[in-house]
Structures are given as C-alpha cells and as structure tokens.
C-alpha cells in the first residue's frame, strides 16, 4: 500500500466518527427532560423564538425526518444560533478558536520537546540520581490536576512574586509590543496545560528508550565508537519515538479537555472559557456546537498524527 | 455424549475445589511477593489505604463539624493555618481540615462506582467483540475508536449541564464515557486467548460459549483490565473534581473540587483554601497511579519471565 492509498483509506475513517458525534448530540437533545426546542434554544429565550426553532429544525415531524434535517443543517455549517450572543454558533466558536489553538499548540510543543529531552536524558543512566529525580518529578506532576497547578502558579508567581499577569489577554493584535505582551500572558497558562503531558511523555520516552537501548544495533553503534549523543538521538530515539507518537495522537483530546479548565482560571478568551460561560447562561446550542467542533478538531489532528506516523515508520503502511 | 462430558466436568470441579483454593492462595502470595518488590507501589497502596480509612472513619476523626459555620465570632473567617485549625478556615468559618477529610468520601465513592460501571460495560463489550468477532466486533470497535479520539470530558460537561449535576448523574456519565479503553484491552486478550490450546481443550470437553468466556478466557485475560482499573479510578476522581471545580459538581456534597471552586475568589487572601484540597486530590491520584505501576509490574506476564 503506498502512502496515498493509506491516506485516502484513513481519511474515510474520519466520517463515521463525526457521524457518531452528531448522533450522540441528537440523542442528548431528545432524551433531555423537556421539549427539544427548549434545549436547542438555550436559556431565557422567548416562546416565539422557540416556535420559530421548531419550524426551522422540523421538530414536530417524525424522528427520522428530524434527524435528516439536523444532519443537513450541520453539513451546511448551521450549528444553531446562540440567543445570548445573537450570532450563529459557528461564528461565535470560530472567533474564539485561534486563542485556544495558540494555547494548546504552545503547551503541546513545550510538552513534547521538554518531555522527550527529559526522557532521553533519564534513559542514559537508568536508576541513577538524575533518572530517579526526573521520574519522581514527572510522576508528581502527572498526578497534579491542572486546575490546581494553575491556581498555585497564580498564587506563587503572579500574586506573591509579581512575575506574571494574573489574567489572560483580551484580544489578538499584530505588532511587536502586543506580541511580547501575548507571550508574557501565555507562559503560565501554557505551562499549566503542558505540565501533565510533559510528565507523561518523559515517562513514555524513557521506557521505550530503555527498550531500544538493549537491542543489538545499539551495541553495533557503540562498537563502531560512536559517541553517546549520536547513539541516543540519531539511533535509539528515532525508533523509540514511535510508541510515543501513538500516545501523543491519543492524548490530543486531553489537551482540549485541559484547555477548558486552564482557560477558565487564566481568563483566556478561547473556546474553553466560552464553554464555561455557556454552561452558566444555559446556552445549550453553543455548548453542543463546541463539543462538535472540538471533536472535529481532535479527529483531524489525530488523522494528521497518523499520517506523520506513517511517514516516519514505513512499516505501518503494510499492515 | 455431551451430557456425559458435562457431568465429568462438574465432578472434576468439586474434586479440584480444595486444590484450586490452595492454588489461588499461593497465587495471591506469589503476586504479593512480586508487588512488594516495587517500593513505590507499596507506598501507593499505603496512601490509598490511609484515605480509605479516612473516608470510613471521617465522622469520628474530624476535629470540627465540616458543615458548621463557626460564624458566632467574625474572627473565625479565613483563619490562617494554626494549631487550632491545621488547614485554616474558609470564607464561612468552616474548618478546612474537617472538610478535606470529609471530601475523601465523595472522591473515593465516585472513583470506585464510576470505575465499576465502566469496568462492567467494558469487560462485557470487549469479551463479546473479541470472542464472536465479525460485524459485532466491527461496530463495537468503531464506537470504541470514536470515544478514544473525541474529547469525552466535553461530552460529560454537556450531559451534566443539561441533565443536572446530581452525584448519581455524574457517576453514571463518567462510567458511560470511560469504558472504551477497558473494552479494547479485554478484546485484545480474548482475541489472543480464544485460539490457544487450553481453550480448544475445554471446547473438546463439551464446554459451551458461556463457560469458555466466563471460566476459561476471562480469568486469564483479566490482568490488563485490573491494571487499567486503578487508572480508571484515578481518572474518575479527576473528572469529578474538574466538574466540581467548574461549578458543575453536586452542590449538596463536600467535594475537593467544589472547595477549589470556592477558593478561587480568595487566591490573594487565603492560599490554604486552594493548597490543601488540591494537595488531597494530587496525593490520591498519585496513590492510584503508583498502584497501577505496581500492578503492571506484578501481573504483566511479559515482565514476569525474568
């Protein structure tokens, strides 16, 4: 199987997942206590508005027709209307998505780079002092919920030491000053979000490195007189990264999950914060829209991770 | 013929009973011997045992009434940690130590019930998918794949926001969204074991599907599920804490996440309101993670041959 066929085949697997997400949403709307139209309208909407929704989404027709209407509406990009923001749900979400992608992307990069480097240096001398410290540290950080890490970071670094701002940015602007300001605001939330993942990646990299370092080709490399650094990074790490990449792909959705809490704590204007607000205003269409969009984003990211995986390791294609 | 084989099977069962109990005990001793070698895992077990005792004995060990607001004296509000109040007091003059101890109950309760629900569904689904294969397997695995990819916490949020944040709702939703990893592990074991010789032998003796699934494959394939279980408990505790922290917890219960939710407004004035409940969550999760590591070392047959 060549790469192109693999990509095409893998792409086809995206649709059942997204279809499943849509079905779940549809089921929730209909088994929720009360009238589906009220759920789809969200909090404090007037009755005329609810009747209008019933018309638009065909809520007085049989169930299967309703589902078809629901599906076609979603396919047209109509995720519903947020009564609170007086705007289509999709627009509200897309406006907030860049902030979340910036936060999760930064956290993700930090976690992967630092986690892999720590894992490799930990595997160099197993059970040495350095290794034990890194593993103990990563175990502790892995167990800390990120809302606690975030709150403690604010107490220590912002309130006591005054190093970082307490609250997040308001909006994006593109000039040097605001970029520096943005980075300054980004450090604490990104670290908070990345810390758990960092700890996980460090542990994973260490264990798969240890497995690789026992193999014959490493002994060959050693006997050729290669130095430690190129054995570790050029030979062992290449193979050791493969299991790590798999987990990274799976853990992408956890990044999103973490973003809700992190954005709430740091008042970061992304979709996590939006979700938190929509719970309080009972803006259900927005809430469900966020679930759909974030699922689509993670499914897509997962797809890309799989493609990267198949490029890195040609063996995967032949499965 | 088949009925005769069946009676043979039953007879041998009773004869072997004593021996199998002895075997069972020796297996447990064996397991404990291997588990004990991982000092961190023993420490984890100690942590969880400690929290477990706290949960059971909390009515007897709390120094103050965790629900009572000692507002008679305005000076009792937001007291710093001292000998009288080891973890300080909160904005309503309630003793933090007592509340942290009481919070153990809800966390462990949610953790075990949710993980139990998820284990039951996951084991059943994985066993059926792995044993029968075919269409059922395809469908179930698609479902599992979907749950592995999508951010399930968002789904939990949606459901709890719409259906209400009653503690039973929360536990059921966590259970219903976390079973796929168990199902996947269980399926893998069934696929690996269903073609082995001892299963063939059992089938040749006339055992039906039910017997093969329940008595033959399940006990042998349970180890990854057991390891996964301790991580599931940790995950459920974390999810409940996150929900409570976002203000979606059951407001009638004392939970660590809810305490953190209230503490947010007092970050500047009362660090202890944030520090201690979060520490309790972290230590509990650490305990379950350590146990998971230890169980993996002790039960994983691949690691056992050394």
Question: Number of DSSP helices of chain A?
Answer: 13
Q: Beta fraction of the residues of chain A?
A: under 5%
**Secondary structural class of chain A:** mainly alpha
Would you state the CATH class of the largest domain in chain B?
Answer: Mainly Alpha
Mean of residue pLDDT values of chain A: 82
> Main β-sheet of chain B, in a few words?
none
Strand element count of chain A? 2
Layout: helices, strands, pairs:
The complex is a heterodimer of chains A (319) and B (306).
Chain A: H1 3-12, H2 14-31, H3 36-41, H4 47-56, H5 63-75, E1 81-82, E2 87-88, H6 89-124, H7 129-143, H8 146-160, H9 176-213, H10 216-223, H11 228-266, H12 271-280, H13 284-312
Antiparallel strand pairs in A: 1-2
Helix pairs in contact in A: 1-13, 2-13, 6-7, 6-9, 6-11, 6-13, 7-9, 8-9, 8-11, 9-11, 11-12, 11-13, 12-13
Chain B: H1 2-36, H2 39-61, H3 96-132, H4 134-149, H5 152-163, H6 167-178, H7 180-193, H8 197-204, H9 209-220, H10 223-245, H11 256-263, H12 271-299, H13 301-304
Helix pairs in contact in B: 1-12, 2-3, 2-12, 3-4, 3-6, 3-7, 3-10, 3-12, 4-7, 5-6, 6-10, 7-10, 8-9, 10-11, 10-12, 11-12
What does this structure look like?
With 319 residues, chain A is mainly α. Chain A is built from 13 helices and two strands; from the N terminus they run H-H-H-H-H-E-E-H-H-H-H-H-H-H-H. Chain A has helices spanning 3-12, 14-31, 36-41, 47-56, 63-75, 89-124, 129-143, 146-160, 176-213, 216-223, 228-266, 271-280, 284-312, and strands spanning 81-82, 87-88. In chain A, helix 8 crosses helix 9. Chain B starts with a helix and ends with a helix. Chain B is 76% helix and 0% strand. Chain B folds into two domains: 1-35; 39-305, MetI-like fold. Chain B has helices at residues 2-36, 39-61, 96-132, 134-149, 152-163, 167-178, 180-193, 197-204, 209-220, 223-245, 256-263, 271-299, 301-304. Chain B has 13 helices and no strands. In chain B, 43% of the residues are buried. Classes of the chains: A mainly alpha (319), B mainly alpha (306). The interface between A and B is large, with 48 and 44 residues.
